[in-house]
Amino acid sequence: MSHNLNIDKLDLQIISEMMSNAEISYADLGKKLFVSGGTIHVRMKKMQDLGIIKGSNLIVDAQKIGFDICAFLGIYLEKGSIYKDAVEKLKNVKEIVELHYCTGAYSIFAKIICRDTTHLRHVLNESIQAVEGIQRTETFISLEESIKRQISLEGLT
């Protein structure tokens, strides 16, 4: 279950609760889990040090600030050996919000957020396809995000 990271049921309960409500105070979470706020603080610090918790994010509705296009991009590389170089260059494309090295037809799969189709076309033509070693791309525009969630810890806590 823990992959030898020295986490226990309380750690999993803390993670589960914080995933549901990251704004809860350590004191309130401690009351809910019947431990002290200090215990929550120590456990959170331990899990951050272990790399289990990688931070917290403010979630912004991209559409409400003018970014109406979410697209997924399958990227074909000329050869797998240029993956690391391609990723270093793709890190500079601020519209890429996720990038995955994957199996299957594509070498890389990316999630891109753009203002509109003109912006998307510019990012594809001027930024992504200009990266040396990218042979071609295939774009899928998302029409609606129906599910977005964290992993479920149900059954582990």
Can you walk through the features of this model?
The protein has 157 residues and is of the alpha+beta class. The chain has five helices and four strands. Strands 2-3-1-4 form a four-stranded antiparallel β-sheet. α2 packs across α3. The termini are close together. The mean pLDDT is 93.
Total beta strands: 4
Instruction: State the shape.
Output: elongated
Q: Mean pLDDT score, rounded?
A: 93
Low-confidence stretches: none
Radius of gyration: 20 Å
The biggest beta sheet reads: 4 strands, antiparallel
What class, by secondary structure content? alpha+beta
DSSP summary: helix tally: 5
Quote the distance from N terminus to C terminus.
11 Å
Strand order of the largest sheet: 2-3-1-4
Strand content: 15-25%
Topology record:
Layout: H1 9-20, H2 26-33, H3 37-49, E1 69-77, H4 83-90, E2 96-101, E3 108-114, H5 117-128, E4 134-141
Antiparallel strand pairs: 1-3, 1-4, 2-3
Helix pairs in contact: 2-3
Summarize the structure.
Helices cover 34% and strands 19% of the residues. The protein has 5 helices and 4 strands. Strand 2 (96-101) and strand 3 form a beta hairpin.
What labels would you give this structure?
elongated, single chain, alpha+beta, 4-stranded antiparallel sheet, 34% helix, 157 residues
